[in-house]
Write a structure and sequence with these properties.
The protein is an alpha/beta fold. It contains 18 helices and twelve strands. Pfam families: PGI.
């Protein structure tokens, strides 16, 4: 579709879900679903929908409140960005997992691909860096290149005890203090944390840092539309009101109790039924560089929410579809071979952009060369979407389950829809799997061992477990 397609209203910008290729009539009876199967399971999905709305009424679905309850927060975020953007050259996010992936996804989707490299595309906003790991080489490489006197750090941790984030903070604080003096440290840090508890709120008050708060009923992987993701967005010129407006638009769709009018509800059920048919891997494959990091964000959302050892009754179930990220057309030349001819264990979700922000024609040349001359006169937008359609058809011919989320154009409004759509779909899937989609006990166990090994008070038993664990045999280290 042309990049010049005219978009007139919010309804023109509605993302849509095309599920034709999950059905037997397209991919065969052995691996495809039937409408009859969906209709037979529809009541389970509708009950899941009721459960979600009831949980929301009880204050347990914080992500559903975000599009509506942050007007004052948004004003404060915008005012902060307006005040600070000219004072700092660099804005650095210190966070990991849900405190980083959404920030990266927003930046990649909305801002220029070379935003950090060229002053003219930043329009007066600071460069953005998201430091989401504790690899010493990566941390040192970044901090050595930044002027601490011209750098603002956003420390994101609900508890203030996240080892990775707080270790980064301790190093950044040392460097800033050496550059500007202890008395000025607080001016170079913003704390995004829990309002009423945790170490970071105490540090922020002690240092005089600006503070933003993460709602207690919103977990990290659902937090992109809180100050966790909205502050870095505002600091790089993203329209955060439009992001929330897109989420609100999708929320209204997700509240519909008519099964076939609620794509997030349908898709939650489809993924559950696909899992029951052995499609235990969920591939997200955007055909858009701007949306590639949405796939990364989705990986955490899907894996951490649905990979659970026990169900709500405490019975051992060990369930959870494995999310995989891919990028079209790039991964047609790497992963697609596996998807076409490997195990029948995947459902593939394409993200297709219908109208790109740029039109770029392929020049005509070498008309005498049959394997090259045919490209001239077409556009790159045509090429990437044709490659998606060709991959889709090839998967169908090989009886592989796939679907497409159609994105009219990539902007703040459609990105807000995407975030909310997949969050609601995840809540639906959690209900259908009968697990708690909002905790992460496996992650907590790993954290607790780290605390114990490092000597944190209260975690001595974890240190003992580590010290008493079986030693690795030298003959098995090859």
């Amino acid at each position: 579709m042309s990049a010049n397609k005219k978009i007139q209203s919010q309804d023109d910008l509605r993302i849509k879900l095309d599920i034709n290729n999950v059905f037997a009539e397209m991919i065969g009876e052995e691996h495809g679903l039937t409408r009859k199967e969906l209709e037979a399971a529809k009541d389970k999905a509708l009950q899941a929908h009721k459960n979600i709305l009831q949980a929301e009424a009880e204050g347990k679905m914080g992500f559903m409140e975000l599009p509506y309850q942050q007007k004052e927060v948004v004003k404060e975020l915008q005012a902060t960005a307006a005040e600070l953007k000219d004072k700092f050259d660099n804005f650095v996010v210190l966070g990991i997992g849900g405190s980083a992936l959404g920030n990266i996804a927003v930046q990649t989707a909305i801002n220029d691909p070379y935003y950090n490299m060229f002053t003219e595309v930043r329009d007066g906003y600071p460069r953005l860096f998201v430091n989401d790991n504790v690899d010493p080489e990566g941390i040192k490489a970044l901090l050595d290149k930044l002027d601490p006197a011209k750098t603002l750090f956003n420390v994101i941790s609900k508890s203030g005890s996240t080892a990775e984030t707080m270790s980064q903070f301790l190093l950044a604080r040392k460097i800033v203090a050496e550059a500007v003096g202890e008395e000025n440290v607080g001016e170079h840090f913003i704390a995004t944390t829990s309002k009423d508890s945790g170490y970071l709120i105490e540090i922020a008050e002690r240092e005089g840092m600006k503070k933003f708060f993460i709602p207690d009923n919103v977990g990290g992987r659902f937090s992109v539309l809180t100050p966790v993701g909205l502050l870095s967005a505002a600091m790089t010129g993203v329209d955060i009101e439009a992001l929330l407006a897109g989420a609100a638009y999708m929320d209204k769709i997700c509240r519909k109790s008519d099964f076939w009018q609620n794509p997030a509800l349908v898709n939650g059920l489809l993924h559950y039924l696909a899992y029951e048919k052995g499609k235990v891997m969920s591939v997200m494959m955007p055909y858009s560089d701007r949306l590639k990091d949405v796939a990364d964000w989705y990986r955490q959302l899907w894996a951490e929410s649905l990979g659970k050892e026990v169900n709500r009754e405490g019975e051992k179930v060990n369930v959870g579809p494995t999310p995989i990220k891919a990028l079209g057309a790039t991964d047609q030349h790497s992963q697609a071979q596996l998807y076409m001819e490997g195990p029948y264990d995947k459902i593939i979700t394409f993200l297709e952009v219908e109208s790109f922000n740029q039109e770029l024609e392929i020049p005509a040349a070498y008309q005498d060369l049959a394997g090259l001359g045919y490209l001239g006169g077409h556009s790159f937008a045509e090429l990437i979407n044709t490659e998606k359609e060709a991959t889709e058809l090839a998967l169908n011919k090989r009886n592989r389950m796939n679907q497409t989320v159609k994105v009219p154009a990539v902007n703040e409004f459609t990105l807000g829809q995407l975030f909310y759509f997949f969050e609601f779909q995840t809540a639906v899937a959690g209900e259908l799997f009968n697990i708690n989609a909002f905790n992460q006990p496996g992650v907590e166990l790993g954290k607790n061992y780290t605390y114990g090994i490092f000597g944190r008070d209260g975690y001595e038993s974890k240190k003992n477990e580590f010290e008493q664990s079986a030693a690795h045999k030298e003959d098995l280290i090859l």
